[in-house]
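In the current project phase, the collection of sequences with tokenised folds has grown. A sample record is quoted in full directly below:
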Amino acid sequence: MGGKNKQRTKGNVRPSSSGRAAELLARENGVVPGFVGFGTTATPEPGYVPAVHGAEDIDSLVDADFRLVLRKLSKRDAFTRLKAVQEFGSMCQEREAEVVKGVLPYWPRIYCKISVDHDRRVREATQQAFEQLVLKVRRSLAPFLKSLMGHWMLAQCDTYTPAASAACQVFHAAFPPSKQPEALSFCREEILNVLQDTLLKETADTLSDPQSVPEEEREAKFLRMVTSSLLGVKRLLSLLPSSDRTALEERLAHLIAAGKFWKYGKHKTPQIRGAFFEVLSALCEYTPSLVQNEAARACPAVLLSIDDTDPVVLPPLWEAVLHIVSTIPDFWTHINSRKGFLPKLWGLLKEGGKGMATVLHPNLMPLISKLPQEITDPALDFYTNFFTSLIQGLSSERAVTSPSESAAIVTAAVECLRYSILHNTAEGEDQRQIRIMLISQQLLPLLDRALGNPSLQNGPFFLLVTEMLISWENRAGLHGWSGSNGSEDVFQKLLEDFWEGLNLLFVRYTDNEEADPKALEGVATLLQVSVSTGNLRKKSVKICFSKLEDKEESGVEGGGGEKPDLSVPALEPEKAIGSLKTEHLEDVVCQQAQLCLVYVNEKNSEKHLLFLSLLLRSFHTHRVFAVSHADHYRSKEEMDTLKNPAMRFLLERVVVWLAEKGRTDTDHLVEMVFSSLHCCSQQETIRILNHIATVLFDVDMDLQWGIILQIIQRASADPETLKSCGDWLKGSVLGEQLLGLADELCNLRGSYSTSTSPKSTHSWTLISLVLSQRHNNEPLIGEVYMEKILEKLHATLCETKGLSDAGNIEPLVSFICNVASTFFSSVQDCLLLTSAEELLLTVFQLTAQDQTHTHLSDSLLDKLRKVCVAGVRSLVQHPECEVREGGFMHSTALWIKNQLLTSSLDIKSQSDSLDVFLLADQCSSLDEFIMDVLIQHMTRYASNTHTHTHTHTLAVGLSRAHIHFGLCVPDVCDCLAVLLCCLKANTAVQEEVLQAILATMMEWRNSKEDWFLFSSNLSKVSAAQLMLTVEMMRFLSWLVTNSPTVLSSGQWDFLLCSMLAWLETASENVSNLWNPWVQLFVCENTALIVKLNQFFTSPSSAVLEKLPPELSGEWTDFFIEGIYSLLLPLPIKITDDPLFPLAVLQSVGVALTYVPVQQLSQNSLPARFIADQKTNLPEPLQTLLNTLCPLLLFKARPLQITAYHLLDKVMPQLPECDGEGDNSKSDDDAEEPCLSPPAPLMSILSACEELCESILAGVQVGEFAVVQPLSVEYSCILGYLLAWKLLLTFFKSSPSHLRVQYSLYLKRSRSLHNLLLHLFKMMPENPVYPGQGGETKETRTLFTESLLHTYLCVCLLQ
């Protein structure tokens, strides 16, 4: 058995000796029935699968293939085990159920080993294979459940999630949900045995062999199995029925009584610590009495570990904390809370949970709700330390940089503060001091901090504070809710203290000339949130209850540890200033508004003006506006007797601020206008807005229209505001002002600076807005004013066509383009307006006219084109789009016709004129009209040799237009024919134009695939369709020959794939070659193949550099094989029909002359062999010769020449197959062995000799025979000469020792003698080489030229 370290020979697929032995043992009834083989896994148990004792017919129980696979499962190499378990799963899926059942006695032991394999891939694959086994055997698994279930439970808790998920899936496949508890109950003792042994008995060295498994791998497996076992205990408790859990309490008590179990809580591995706390939580939940018995160890193990902030440990740890404080009533007696628990808690809170606030802090309120008085006394100090530490956590590095962390901290702070106040509502001095401390030292400072911190402002803090205030109002009786147990006065006092402190806090920020804008914004945000409680989300926090006396007093429910949800309902917003019933909020807002007015009036403070605007957005009440106007009325009756305070505030304050000169930022003032309008009627709204628009006429033009623009934008921002301002928007005051603005902007004879200056941008934007903005498909302004504005724009563009100073008017035209483009793009059915159609027609005419007449720049023309495209798109998308007399499409078509027929457009304008119809694919009635005009124009130019560029440009436009017009196939065919005629005129062609044409054809490939006739039955295709495809082939051939470098990689793919698909179509339609159009299709396809072969055979280096780098490789590796696998059998298919077309045969023959020798040597022709034919050739070459040699005598000269060229390519390879020749002694001549040239060729040569003898029988040497062309005799003689030509090539390629043997064969067969005899009879009377002129010095004869020339002369002799 030596050679242990030898390498197996490459390619040796024979199994090793041990494998062969096992295979033989499985096949033959071996002497050890049931033996599978020894494994390498070192375990205390034997490394083989034992036989079933007492079973005589063991082969019927375990299939031989299963034996081999089971043996591989015990291999040491992980990859081998992985492949084996995958193979096992496949076999379970494929084999019969009875065969698979034979494996069941051995499966539990194997499963228990590989389900805890070190390689996680093996563990996952094991569960997948187990699933296939379960699905196949079903109920037959029942006797083996107890031996499987322990490790099955471990697998379901695998630390590798895919493996655990697969194990759970197997469990669900084996047992329906209703049967799962029953299955676990049946095996509960066995499961717990496995889990308990792993936790208490096993070590890294007992689970794995120290001699064969590395220490690192042993330790990793041990840690993984301990973790899985802990999680398995939890899973077992959660799935077992309560009665079974009670039955297991004695066993579980033994587990948790072990000291090793409690050491897992301090293990260095986070996964084990986390799993330990999960098990402890499960024990508290399902078997609380056991934990209570071990309280002395459980409480310190959990409560003194709260500083463990490992991300894996912290979530289960805090779940265990809440379970411990709920399950063990006297938990504080088992720990030193003053020295151990609380200091760790304070430190953890001060550090913001060490980056785990989102997980840790939601547990704080349930925790403090269960802390007994023995821990919290003195309460004031406890709450002070708790909240100070909690809020200090906001300064931790993680909380500062993470919005989610800071949000978790402030949420916990507000919830705990709210809970603490609710549980300290008694009248005693101690609890009053606690309430004061929580408000003044915790809540208000936290609000102060948030006002300057955008991160806290954007978080949930303000919402939570508002929700808490609403809760206090409820308990104070302000919302009619009585459930505060006589504590209304306490909560009223709380509200007073809070608002008093908050007001002082706000005043400190506002009453300052150098006020911080961020702080002012924070104040406004807090006040806004206070009245926007309708946006509060319903919050659900999982806590436990101690008492259910009311909705908001929360604690922890003892006993079972149930965790109901605490849902805080969203409160409906109140009228006036919001959900808060108290007037304190309104008092605060009024005081802030007064302070703002003081600083605005006395200090011109823009910061306070902006702050006032922010306040009024949320607080628009009569009282606030009255205060802002400096008249503070105490009663509503007094306010109603006077004018509307909001109107007075607008007229006397806001309008004055708007009209101030030099003011640039007016957004906040416009917002102030609309805040005030909330308190105004619709008539008052119209009056105010008209007044503002009138007053602004005395202001700077740009500022005036900028403010009007902002007002209109704000008025149309939401449906409610639009409804209240709709009458003003459609009114005459605004309409006349906008019409005057349009007149001023479009004044060509005035100063251009007014309408085209950068400052006039607001004016043009305003015009664009009122034209384009629509609501419920109605214009924003009055329709009559909209039409007048469009007419003004149209008139302005019409005037520009006659102006010569286009340079000055370009900015004006550009602005009009912007307005028109937005209008056409935004407004549906905009072209139903006559003025809009006229505007679009004028834009189109400016686009299409000669640039030398319009004097417009390229950039402006490009913008005009985009406007035109937008307008046509809008037109054709209308469902009632049609060509009507006087409409845009009809007028444009007539204008194009006149311009084309009068030749007043330049080349570029001609193309641009056509482009406008590319989008009009729904207006099909234009097609015939436009095409007639274009073809007339093309015909007119096609006869002019100096105007190829015109024809070329129009042809390109036509080819593009066909895509969109959906014209019929004949029109497209005509277009391509004219296009190709233009391209062949030797005129310069731009690469972009060729790219555009090819892109058009590629678009046809996607949208008009039937035009390409791929895989079509050509007998059912019209002549026009065939001609269209032919024209495409001709264009591609021209492209390959003349401009190959313009093609991109994708375009080359299109060309080559189309060529190959057409060849497949031609091969499938040989029976339809009676149709001359099909013949033309095949001929053009082969012509394209010839052009491609010529191109790829010898491209220049300059061309190669510009081609895609992978193109040549793709042609050689893929397309050559595809082409000639289809082309090589084609001549034989064509000649199956007696009436075959010679033109097609000749075209195919020319294409076949480019076939590479490799394709011929490895051809895929149908095998053709002749009985008793002696040959040394490979099968492909022998088939080629047997197929092509008979064609040398076929009565079709193109086919004879094609067969000759193909055979001539392989002749040099044939002598190699004869090796050293024939070394045997011949009977006739023992000294000189002979060897026959290729048998198929000699067979044809013999047949030709007989025919030639009969043809030339009456001709004597010295005479010459006359052979009629294309006769049978002609074909025979030509085939005879071609066969000899091939023989000469064969001889030339033969080595000298073979050449002697071949010559001797020809000598003995008298073939050479017959050749000379026939040549002298066929030789012409004058053997002068044809084609010589009189100036030739030396006369060339057939005897002075090369054999090739001789062959050609002989072929052309007759």
Remarks:
- The mean pLDDT is 77.
